[in-house]
Known about the structure:
The chain is of the alpha/beta class. α2 crosses α5. The chain is 27% helix and 22% strand. It is built from seven helices and eleven strands. Strands 1, 2, 3, 4, 5, 6, 7, 8, 9, 10 and 11 form an eleven-stranded mixed β-sheet that branches. It is globular, with a radius of gyration of 18 Å. The longest helix is centred in the last third of the chain and has 25 residues, at 220-244.
Amino acid sequence: xxxxxxxxxxxxxxxxxxxxxxxxxxxxxxxxxxxxxxxxxxxxxxxxxxxxxxxxxxxxxxxxxxxxxxxxxxxxxxxxxxxxxxxxxxxxxxxxxxxxxxxxxxxxxxxxxxxxxxxxxxxxxxxxxxxxxxxxxxxxxxxxxxxxxxxxxxxxxxxxxxxxxxxxxxxxxxxxxxxxxxxxxxxxxxxxxxxxxxxxxxxxxxxxxxxxxxxxxxxxxxxxxxxxxxxxxxxxxxxxxxxxxxxxxxxxxxxxxxxxxxxxxxxxxxxxxxxxxxxxxxxxxxx
Length: 287
């Protein structure tokens, strides 16, 4: 199998030198419109599909993201794996602004977001004990290190609802829970990628220390300055990742996770929900 890498991130990521045959593609999904059109092209011979998570110009708040449509659109375009790049606050003194962190665990504290492709008439339970793909996470981390970034491997990301930042009491509570990072977008993104049988990795870019640190409040001007400073490194890391991918993509256990996840008996499956999940279930239905 060949690679096709879906990349979800901010507006600075898709301005990559060397992207060949670049074009914006509109993708329709049964779940509604994704955040934006998707920029497709090739980097070092690898097909890539860039989705601006908040839309170009950052139009969409975290709780307004149509994450089901975003993941469905990448699946429809034939993506085999998904790399997410997200700005985060740090709850850990050793993870400083400007650092990159390969996330390996999540705590989901979001509220009211559509968190599954499945439901009444088509019930599925995917395993999430290890919510990221170790292969893609390792390769992405290696790419950051090769590009000169300060890299940390392994961290717990707390996903909060937002759009307001944490209170000081919440920030200290999140620390007490053992969380290293706080952000607003990784959930349900990681869960939906797993349901779509898409190996998922998250590169977190630390922008600030949240409000637990030195009694300071979170300042958007400081966050934007760090994000702009890291944009070039993030783009270089994506380029390095594509250059380093093996020519052949070996199968991943995540590729077939639905085989043991769907519980609903065939005779009572909802045909409407089956049709709505045509892209997600294509391999499973063809077994």
